[in-house]
Amino acid sequence: MTGPDGQTATPGGERLVAAFDFDGTITREDTFRLFLNRIGTRRALAGSFLRRSPQMLSALRGGERRDHAKKLLCHDMLEGLTSEFADSVASATAREVSGSLIRTDTAARIRWHQAQGHRIVVVSASFDAYVRPVVAELGIDEVIATRWEVDPATALLTGRLDGRNVRGDAKVDLLDTHLGEASTIEYAYGNSGGDKAMLARSRYPVWVGRRPMPELAADPPAGGFLR
């Protein structure tokens, strides 16, 4: 099977890359808050939002303000938890997402890319601990996602992120590192402002909205990729 230009690989022989956001793109709703509601009580989560309300309001402006607000929220909700407990909550979250929150239209697109022999990478600001098992059920093993930091001496979560929050420009930077600087993103799927940089870098960007995406034929039409 061939891609939109009759190719399944780049001139250098690499497979064409399709990058997918996770929340709202593969899933029907935000899974980060779902995870936080499982990791702590609703009262604790509400208390964190209230205590951090100035930063949460500032986060609506996006960019680094959003990243900062997320770091504060994660610090409040994750600090001091055992990695065993956090992993168990992540596993339960993954089971719920896989069982009832996968968009059927995006799952069909993923199957289409797999049939074309494309290389699929999921790039998400949600936590790797539950994103990875969810997309593994869809046959995807390449994941770039946010991670929490664990103190190796105590096996407790520090409340800090291990590396960058994977949204915005970080998605593109980490994709470049993962794929190699010479690689290109052929297809990209996203649904929010945090995906715009990744979409802008791709040859065939697909904005995933509330309306289901149409299914694609076995082979793409000549001259372009159906949105």
Give your account of this protein's structure.
The structure is a single chain. This protein has 227 residues and is an alpha/beta fold. The protein has a single domain, classed as HAD superfamily/HAD-like (Rossmann fold, 3-Layer(aba) Sandwich), CATH 3.40.50. 43% of the residues lie in helices and 17% in strands. The strands form two sheets. The chain has a five-stranded parallel β-sheet. Strands 4-5 form a two-stranded antiparallel sheet. Helix 1 crosses helix 5 (83-100) and helix 5 (83-100) runs parallel beside helix 7. Residues 1-6 have low confidence and may be disordered.
Describe, in short, the structure shown.
The chain has 227 residues and is an alpha/beta fold. The chain contains 9 helices and 7 strands, in the order E-H-H-H-H-H-H-E-H-E-E-E-H-E-H-E. The chain has one domain: Rossmann fold (3-Layer(aba) Sandwich), CATH 3.40.50.
